[in-house]
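Ex. 9. Protein: VOC family protein.
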Amino acid sequence: MAELSPIQPCLWFDDRARAAMQYYVDVFPDSRITSIEEYPDESLDEHFVGMTRKVLNGQFILNGVSFVCLDGGPLFTFNESISFVVSCKDQDEIDYYWSKLSHVPESEQCGWCKDQFGVSWQVIPSNMDELVRRPEQIQVMMRQKKVVIAELENA
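Predicted structure tokens for VOC family protein:
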């Protein structure tokens, strides 16, 4: 088992942890899966029934940030109360991450989106605080789905 960071987000998937890890490391630069431990054979314990070859503990790094994940079944699901912020240097980077992470159009608002696994992301410019200093800029941002830097600068 790889060494854990002092604080790490842990993502509970129903049964798609392996697919999610692979997807995320393909999206983010400087990323990799560091370990995958699978559930033991289901004949060993009643709690393992149906879990053979699913992820008991997956560890991966996204652009230098350590994550863990697991396949825990449908008991818990993701919601917008937790999200991950992707700080982007320019509009091209925003467009890239938006195209990769936004899969639920009805969840798009003010730079927030939801991916194909139900995880919420905030894809925003690194200078967002400068771009929403004035009420006019905030109003523009509130109408945006994906953040468009030029619209905020021109507000």
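Check your answer against this statement. The chain has a mean pLDDT of 93.
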